[in-house]
Amino acid sequence: MTVRFRTYYEDEDLWLYFEADDEGWAARQVEIRAADSRPVTAASLAEVVHLRDHADLAAMGRYERRYGVLAEGSLDGWETQPGAAEVSAEEFERLWADARRALGGPD
């Protein structure tokens, strides 16, 4: 079951929004700076896998500079993180679309 949630990363003053797949891994991730509400990450597992399988390291580097780096590993235990809360599919989609536009890419 897909779950969407947010947590707060105090060290970097970032709100982290995740869409986790059935196995608890990040399928999509949005990071928003708390100070100015500016998106800094909007990365997708499907896009990363596609680049890994069909492009070169330079293309992956360009992707990561534009959209940031997707979290690796299981997101289990997110419920215990600071500011943790589930978010609706609609809220996540809005944040995703806004972040992709701000970072210069398609929704």
Brief digest:
The protein is of the alpha+beta class and 107 residues long. The chain contains 3 helices and 5 strands, in the order ββββααβα.
Q: Can you describe what's shown?
A:
- The chain is 33% helix and 28% strand.
- By secondary structure, the protein is an alpha+beta fold.
- It has one domain (3-102).
- A hairpin with a 4-residue loop joins β1 and β2 (14-20).
Q: Ends: how far apart?
A: 23 Å
How would you spell out the order of helices and strands? EEEEHHEH
How much of the sequence is in beta strands?
25-35%
Count of separate DSSP helical elements: 3
Average the pLDDT over all residues and give the rounded result. 93
The domain count comes to: 1
Helical fraction equals: 25-40%
Largest sheet: 5 strands, antiparallel
Shape: globular
Spatial sequence of strands, sheet with the most strands: 4-3-2-1-5
- Over the alpha carbons, how many angstroms does the gyration radius reach? 13 Å
- Sequence stretches where pLDDT stays below 50 over 5 or more residues: none
Q: Find the structural class using helix and strand composition.
A: alpha+beta
Please provide the count of β strands. Answer: 5
